[in-house]
Amino acid sequence: MTIMVHASGIRGYLEVMQDLNFDPEPLLAQHNITLDQLKQDDAWLCQRSVINLFEQTAAIAQCPDLGLRVSRHQDISVLGVLGIILQSASSIRGVIEYTSDFMFLHGPGLVMSLNQPSPLFEDAAEVIFEIQINGYAPQRQTIDNCLGTTHRILKWLAAENYELKAVSLPHKPIAAISEYQRFFGAPILVNQERAALHLHRRTLESQPHSSNPALREIAQDYITRHFRNPAEMVSSSVRKALRIHLATPRADKIRIAAMLGLHPRTLQRKLASEGTSFDEIKDEIRKELALQYLWETKIPMSQLANILGFSEQSALSRATKRWFGRSPKEVRNAKGQLSI
């Protein structure tokens, strides 16, 4: 199944290309994206094509901070009807929860979740952003863009109550870290387990300046009556929980089932009815992350084994042999050569 995303998600791309005096049409054609589509916010684009377009454009146009530059042109209006709901939430926590519940309206491959407390700051929560696609694709620019736009939207909603303690990147940026620090106004932590904004808990409980409960009820009622969230599948909830706790002892079936309020056997049955299993989901996440870190970072194998929740480095080696027929080092050296 092709995962799609609204064209509003790359609003600003053409403006950045104009600023760089770079003709984007050949690259757009290469990725089967038309200029007309980019001018229609509600047009659906293949998410993998958008991800690849961003990466290739950044390289050819020599614009290593492309994702951040594009996000400067984006605001809450890129989210369409979801943006209306967010503006009516009673707290910033509510904004994040509504985004988590209804992000599928903007793109089913985009996932936001809230982890509290942050594993890095006791007085903060972790707003996690994940991009789910079929197979592997470099996501550095798209992750930067998603974090940048989320930061801008939350900062606008929270106004003077916005306190960003740090930003976690699951890669080392190509652009200078100082560019990121200027954009976010906070410390930048590279080669982290996941992409996230670490917000002070005071920000979570603050009220958005545009709060309107009546508007929220109208918009939410419309969405729940007309749309079904694919993330309601148990497998999606398991994936989200595993992604947060993968590097901890909590990433087992019994604990994840408890987090979801299910008996382990009930969880197993529900996953089976969706054509998968707990172990399959966990293995799939590990495989995706292994490629991401081997190809987009230079972190030591011992650190990667820990991120993936392996008890020892030899377990990582056995897993990569099973997934790719090669050792972790061989996979890293074969970037762009493996057919995944």
UniProtKB/TrEMBL annotation:
One of its GO terms (molecular function) is transcription cis-regulatory region binding. InterPro entries: AraC-type_N (IPR032687), Homeodomain-like_sf (IPR009057), HTH_AraC (IPR018060). GO terms for cellular component: cytosol. Residues 236-334 form the HTH araC/xylS-type domain. SUPFAM superfamilies: Homeodomain-like (SSF46689). The keyword Metal-binding does not apply. It comes from the Bacteria. Keywords: DNA-binding, Transcription, Transcription regulation. It holds the Pfam family HTH_18. The keyword DNA-binding applies. This is AraC family transcriptional regulator. It comes from Acinetobacter tandoii.
